[in-house]
Amino acid sequence: MILVCGGLADGVTELVCARLEDCGYPYRLLDFARFPAGYRFHVRWTDGGPAGWIATDEWHLDLDDISGVYARLLGTDDRAPLPGLDPADASALRTEADLGLMALLEDIACPVVNRIGGGLSNNSKPYQSIVIRRAGLGVPPTLVTSDPDAVRAFQAEHGDVIYKSASGVRSIVRRVGEEQLARLDRLRDGPAQFQAFVPGRNVRVHTVGASVFATAIESDAVDYRYAHLDGLTTRLTPVELPASVNEACLRLAQACDLLFAGIDLKETPSGEFVCFEVNPCPGFLYYERHTGQPISTALAELLRGPTTDFSPHAFTTDKEHVPWPSA
Amino acid sequence: MFLLVGHSNDSCCQDVRARLAAQDLDARIVDSPLAPPARLTWRLDARGLTSSLYPHLPDSAIDGVLVRDTGWLDPAAWEEDDFAYMQAELRAVMLAWLNGLKCPVINRPDASQWYRSGVPLVAWRRQLRSAGLKLPEVVITSEPEEAAAFRRRLEADGNDGAVYAPLTNASSYLLADDDAWTGLASVQAHIAVCLTQAHGPTALACVVRDDVIWNGVPPSYAPAIEPALRRFAAAAALTFVEIAIAPVRGEPTVVLVEPRPRLERYREPARTRIVAALVAALTRVTAADAPLVPS
């Protein structure tokens, strides 16, 4: 039995559930929009891993029967208030309930897409750049600075420069222009992240276990995710990447302890690949709908049952020497 | 120069600075490392990683960093939304900067540690278990019947009782009588609660690299448990960590893990030994101190 933790109002979770139904793989939905209201939960740790169950009025699921977990958190606004409580108490109780569930997902032996710990590198883009480099992928020339002169020098060196948030706070990637240069003195309040603009073709890679799905994106927008805001269009096409790039993407997902990852690459005109970031909770719906790539099917197969050891960090104790498990 | 990232009144920062000073080594306590006079430039490209935090002091001149805090930002200086954004940005930048330094960084954080400081003991269970350490029974349950069964098991084992230990903070409440259990059931009407076993007096140990330093006379089981404590610290990539151990069911059991130990909890000579071990670790570069990415 597969456990899906998410909200059906979220298109990605809805797709995962629909694919599991298509495949005939039984699942239970823990609806984050309502959780913890309506759910009963019992987990016991003694000398080993967790044992116990999760239940609603309609179903009862023993932890031992779970073959895989798909978890996609919802924002606070997407979650219903807990009935009969004032908002502050409800918020505190829901946080407590979420942490209980996370404690379980961190330690349960089956595949979990994804455990919380690995995905936290996405909260620091420059830190993640270091991890990306270590996995063997190039990164765009990156400057994080609170020094206006350093930005000017960086721009003089690279010409076209973009800026974006260093943290996990989502930001639209923008080019540095006259308007931004006029405001560089504000950097003294805190550093910002700048990158050399890398020309070429955007490629989104989804790794699912040991499978790799690459999608080329053709767009005139600096940030293709927001092309529509500028009246621009985007075209997505499945592509095959060089084996060395595929392997590096798998190493990167492994280094981040992610069974499922969305990796943003760019292929330069000279055929090099640089990596921008790793998304631990990829919204792959957009890519699958446009290309027909069987990402959700691969995910369903992964969640259906382990063919190898997917226990937490089983393959990350020594990230450089432990082989990636076969699918 | 050594950088001690933490509040100026942090006793660990103070003691380490004093000991470094006694060795004629310069150390600076900074609570907001990215604030002026710092002027960070951090560059990563095909040539490698270079960084400089202070205008007239290259990072290569920083000999070691003790990390006691993620960096402080004055909320009074910011609008609420801007403050949250800036705090996230500064933490993100600090994590990257610390991981690029070539000098010893104690503890050099990974993203999981950096963004989950103060995690409850249950979050360390897997690594503690793998290191061969015993752990108390923990139950997270929404079921009053299961809580009652836990209570009965403890009573049958002659245990001191159960403790309600919320996962969202460090507080814990001994469930001493029937009223306490009734109150717990009212919480369970909304969420699952985390229960664990009460324990007797704790023995406090600090692992600093390979040294295990006990607060007071080491317990009789110290020689047997110290290798496991070192294994845990190494697996968790913690050069400096405090572990509290208490007898549960007659066995030494880990009841607390604290990656930012507070020196106030230690008596002499343990406190002096901890500081000496920290200074030794800060001033000695080994393979374990290698940054995430070589330049």
Task: Provide a brief overview of the structure.
Chain A has 327 residues and is of the alpha+beta class. Chain A is built from 9 helices and 16 strands.
- The pLDDT mean of chain B sits at 92
Helix content of chain A: 25-40%
Placed side by side, the strands forming the largest sheet of chain A appear as 14-13-12-15-16
Strand fraction of chain A equals: 25-35%
> Alpha-carbon distance between the termini of chain A?
19 Å
Summarize the helix and strand pattern of chain B as letters: EHEEEEHEHHEHEEHEEEHEEH
Q: Let me know the number of strands of chain B.
A: 14
The total of beta strands of chain A comes to 16
The backbone outline of chain A, from C-alpha atoms, is: globular
**Distance from first to last alpha carbon of chain B:** 21 Å
Radius of gyration of chain B: 22 Å
Q: What's the helix-strand series of chain A?
A: EHEEEEEHEHHEHEEHEEEEHEEHH
Whole-number mean pLDDT of chain A: 88
Biggest sheet architecture of chain A? 5 strands, antiparallel
Residue ranges of chain B: pLDDT <50 for 5 or more in a row?
none
Count of helical stretches of chain B = 8
- What's the oligomerization state? heterodimer
DSSP summary: helix tally of chain A: 9
